[in-house]
Design goal:
With 254 residues, the chain is mainly alpha-helical. The chain is 73% helix and 7% strand.
Length: 254
């Protein structure tokens, strides 16, 4: 019994010794591990300081860069807002200019329509003016022609007055000759070209009022003023057949 308990104790002691050995081994391992960790921690601590320093510098640089970007972004935003305001004002100004241009265009179109109407009126007035000018030219030519005709008429009237004077003189001479003739010899006949009016009644000759010579005095009379007949003595002193004579010659021979 004692042996058995001794064996159990030995076995338990052996087991505990083994455990103690293992624990010491683990302790040494843990001490080594802790030393390594402390060493690593020291290394990492120094490295971490540098890393933190580098990180801090990097973060500071990034923060500065971010602040610069933020400032630039803010400036760009301000510039964009300013540009937007300028663009808005520019658009409003353009819209106002467009409205003014549309009004000016409408006014110009109205002016163009008025101008076209004035051109049409001027065309009509020009046509009327040309027509009046043509009429004036024709009237001027007509006046010139009438002036020429008037001058010619005055010349003809003057010639007719001269002819009438000559005819009266011839009539007077013929009458005197007829009164002085004892036998009533026939006088010289006046040419038809100088007779435009009857020597007695002064009526103008035409298609119905024709010229007739008095066989005694030779002057030209109308039918009414020479509607008489007398038997005149010829050059041989013989009395011929009754012929047409004027009223004066007929009265002087009775």
């Amino acid at each position: 019994m004692y042996k058995r308990e001794s064996k159990e104790c030995e076995a338990l002691l052996k087991h505990k010794t083994e455990l103690l050995t293992k624990l010491e081994t683990q302790k040494e391992d843990m001490a080594n591990t802790i030393a390594n960790l402390e060493k690593t921690w020291s290394t990492d601590k120094s490295n971490l300081g540098e890393i933190l320093k580098n990180t801090s510098e990097t973060l500071s640089t990034q923060v500065n860069a971010s602040e610069e970007r933020a400032n630039r972004a803010e400036q760009r935003a301000i510039q964009a807002e300013t540009a937007t305001m300028i663009e808005r004002e520019w658009r409003v100004s353009l819209q106002q200019k467009e409205i003014k241009l549309k009004e000016q265009n409408a006014n110009l179109q109205s002016y163009v329509q008025d101008f076209k109407s004035e051109v049409q009126k001027n065309g009509k007035l020009k046509a009327e003016l040309d027509k009046l000018h043509h009429q004036w030219s024709e009237a001027q030519r007509t006046l010139e022609e009438l002036g020429v005709q008037l001058s010619e008429s005055k010349l003809k009237i003057s010639e007719l007055e001269d002819k009438e004077k000559r005819q009266k003189q011839l009539l007077q001479n013929s009458t005197m000759n007829a009164m002085n003739l004892t036998g009533g010899a026939a006088g010289i006949w006046a040419p038809d070209s100088i007779a435009t009016h009857c020597t007695a009644c002064k009526k103008e000759f035409n298609l119905t009022r024709r010229r007739h010579h008095c066989r005694s005095c030779g002057e030209i009379f109308c039918n009414s003023c020479s509607d008489h007949s007398l038997a005149l003595v010829n050059e041989n002193g013989q009395v011929g057949k009754p012929v047409r004579v004027c009223l004066v010659c007929f009265a002087s021979q009775k």
